[in-house]
Design brief:
- The protein is mainly α.
- It has one domain: Amino acid/polyamine transporter I (Up-down Bundle).
- Helices cover about 75% and strands about 0% of the residues.
- It contains 15 helices and no strands.
- Helix 2 packs across helix 10 and helix 4 packs across helix 14.
- The longest helix is centred in the first third of the chain and has 34 residues.
- The radius of gyration is 20 Å and the shape is globular.
- About 45% of the residues are buried.
């Protein structure tokens, strides 16, 4: 496969995931005007952060990931901040996955038995946690197929939704949920953790300049995909749009088509849960020397404990996690960019020309967004 196409498909697959299912609900609650504003502005902001981090990778001879770059350019405090952000962000992401996984499982099993949301979430958590506990990752090996399946779900929604779209379903503004889309959309747009791997797909130096276009096209594709998904879901279900996007479509598209979508969505979420769970488990084991049994136990118990403590709203969890990751990791990338400009050890294949005052402004937006995300989840 052409290196550009491979890199593009890998990055789009890394960005598009569970977050897409939360966007229609967030925009339905806030109104399409603030929703479109958030989607456009945040897509642009994340693209800039992706380009900045891409330049950081190209300015550095050694191969690192975000924590490694923070250690190299920012020292121990930067490394500590990234470790903390990674831990909190991963646990929060696992919590979001078991919530929406339970929603999808409830839809899938609805023709056979009626499960409460808590029971469905617990069942999803139990089955998937066994895979994490045992270190079985065969589902994760089908990640590329899962991403294709996600696009099939979206295509099915598009196809069956067209006759049911009503313009009156699009409300312009709802003042009581103006800040809800921020963290959810940010969560759904972030893909910078995959950029070091993307950069390594270009083996020759003269190929590495393609990285900039990969980042641009991935952002454009993601933005268009999210905008279309929002248009079709809200156009059909309007004020009845559900937090998982699919449940609210049942009265309009029929139970069967939504169940098919939920089945595919369930496998996508399961794949992601195993990958993130296995990553956190191995981090505790290799980085902190916690025995493997206890590393797995910590990994699978924390999200369930948070769920049982009352954190059960998918949209609110994703909003907070997205705001947190965006602020901590986004600001770290801004700092890395400044440091790498002066202390990098190779000439990059592309250079981002951007005023320093704009970088400061972007950092303030990310920090302010995080604060608003915690105050108005």
């Amino acid at each position: 496969m052409n290196s550009f196409i491979l890199a593009l498909s890998t990055l789009v697959g890394a960005i598009v995931g569970a977050g897409i299912f939360g966007i229609p609900y967030a925009i339905a609650k806030s109104g399409v005007v603030p929703g479109i504003f958030y989607l456009g502005v945040l897509a642009g902001a994340v693209l800039i952060l992706h380009l900045l981090f891409g330049e950081v990778c190209l300015r550095t001879k050694e191969k690192y990931r975000l924590i490694g770059y923070a250690r190299r350019y920012l020292g121990k405090w930067g490394e500590a901040a990234m470790i903390f952000a990674t831990f909190v962000g991963t646990v929060g992401t696992l919590l979001a996955y078991i919530i929406i996984g339970g929603d999808f499982l409830k839809i899938v099993l609805s023709p056979l038995l009626s499960l409460s949301p808590i029971a469905a979430t617990f069942l999803f958590w139990l089955v998937l946690s066994l895979f994490v506990f045992q270190g079985i990752r065969f589902i994760a090996k089908t990640e590329f197929l899962m991403n294709i399946a996600l696009f099939i779900v979206i295509a099915l929604v598009f196809l069956f939704a067209i006759p049911h779209i009503r313009i009156e379903n699009f409300s312009l503004v709802h003042g009581d949920s103006l800040f809800l889309p921020y963290g959810i959309i940010l969560f759904a747009l972030i893909g910078w953790s995959a950029i070091p791997e993307i950069a390594e797909l270009f083996k020759k130096d003269d190929e590495k300049k393609k990285l900039r276009n990969v980042l641009r096209f991935a952002s454009l594709i993601t933005f268009a995909l999210y905008a279309l998904f929002v248009f079709f879901v809200i156009g059909v279900s309007g004020a009845n749009t559900s937090p998982d996007a699919l449940g609210g479509l049942v009265p309009f598209l029929g139970e069967n088509i939504v169940i098919i979508g939920a089945i595919i969505g369930l496998f996508i979420i399961a794949d992601s849960y195993i990958i993130f769970g296995d990553y956190l488990k191995n981090s505790l084991y290799y980085d902190y020397k916690i025995p493997l049994f206890f590393s797995a136990a910590i990994t699978i118990s924390l999200p369930l404990a948070l769920f049982m403590l009352g954190l059960r709203q998918f949209s609110e969890v994703v909003a907070v996690v997205g705001s947190f990751i965006g602020a901590v990791e986004g600001v770290t990338i801004l700092l890395l960019f400044q440091k790498a400009r002066h202390h990098g050890d190779r000439e990059p294949e592309y250079i981002v020309s951007i005023p320093r005052i704009f970088l400061i402004f972007l950092g303030l937006i990310l920090i302010s967004g995080a604060l608003l995300g915690f105050v108005f989840p």
